[in-house]
Design a protein that fits this description.
By secondary structure, the chain is mainly beta. About 5% of the residues lie in helices and about 55% in strands. The protein has a 15-stranded antiparallel β-sheet that branches. The chain is globular, with a radius of gyration of 19 Å.
Length: about 270
């Protein structure tokens, strides 16, 4: 990681005060209402050999016991072939999500716990590799307990997409993203958890009708301090034809995989 990125990480981290909380944080559960903020470093590898390096800021603001708003914004550098009309450095894609929790009983060890709903907006960036698509997703997230260590969530969303600058609607469809979370009572590190989160989106109408894409997210998290959670997200993307076992031979710069290391302070 370059010294410039380290400096940005340091500035972002210094802006976050130290907060104390009596409640034990359960970062493995996406339905828990928390407030947090923190920086992260993300690297994306494209199928043509190019890379994108980013510093990303992320945060979540709890609005009472049932609502929260999440944000994420990045600034990065694209390394590879960049045309004169494309930007090599600048803001990357951003995200804003509103989340509402209906009746939820997290004490249920095995069985249905409740559900939540969300509106998730993702906006293109100005750097190559992050331009060309904007989307809005709306849907529901039912939650289930499997046993004391495992939980299961089944987000189902309606997705609508636009091209660059929101000047043309390109299609809408359905996204299904089942997630399994493992949070053993005695993990290898304090607050240890893992999330296994595949996602498949299929477009049903518009210019993208009949096309689909998928990705698999694996997150490892732990708590080095009572109010700090560190996560490493590993995401593997698959092409629109879902050739899971065939390495992509595209040279168009399709997103192949990325790694995202972040730290969040809870308050």
């Amino acid at each position: 990681m370059s010294s410039n990125y380290l400096c940005v990480l340091g500035v972002l981290a210094s802006c976050i005060p130290a907060f104390a909380s009596a409640e034990k944080i359960d970062a493995s559960d996406p339905t828990k209402i928390y407030s947090y903020a923190g920086p992260g470093y993300k690297t994306t590898k494209y199928s043509n050999g190019d890379t994108l390096s980013e510093i990303r800021g992320q945060g979540n603001l709890a609005l009472g016991a049932q609502d929260m708003v999440m944000f994420e914004l990045g600034y990065g550098n694209y390394s590879g072939t960049v045309a004169a009309s494309e930007k090599e450095n600048g803001f990357t894609n951003s995200r804003v999500r509103w989340f509402h929790l209906f009746k939820m009983d997290s004490s249920v060890v095995s069985g249905y716990r409740g559900w939540a709903t969300q509106i998730d907006v993702q906006i293109e960036g100005e750097v190559k590799g992050t331009k060309g698509s904007n989307s809005v997703a709306m849907g529901a997230l039912p939650a289930f307990g499997i046993n004391e260590a495992w939980s299961f969530y089944l987000p189902v969303n309606y997705v609508s997409s636009w091209n660059s600058d929101f000047d043309k609607h390109t299609g809408h469809g359905i996204s299904v993203a089942p997630m399994a979370a493992w949070a053993p009572e005695k993990g290898p590190w304090p607050g240890f958890f893992m999330q296994f989160w595949p996602n498949y989106t299929r477009y049903l109408a518009g210019d993208l009708e009949g096309e689909g894409a998928a990705n698999l997210d694996i997150t490892v998290g732990w708590s080095p301090a009572d109010t700090v959670v560190v996560t490493l997200l590993m995401q593997q993307n698959f092409d629109k034809d879902l050739n899971f076992y065939t390495p992509s031979k595209s040279t168009s710069g399709a997103n192949d995989y990325n790694l995202f290391l972040s730290a969040s302070w809870y308050f």
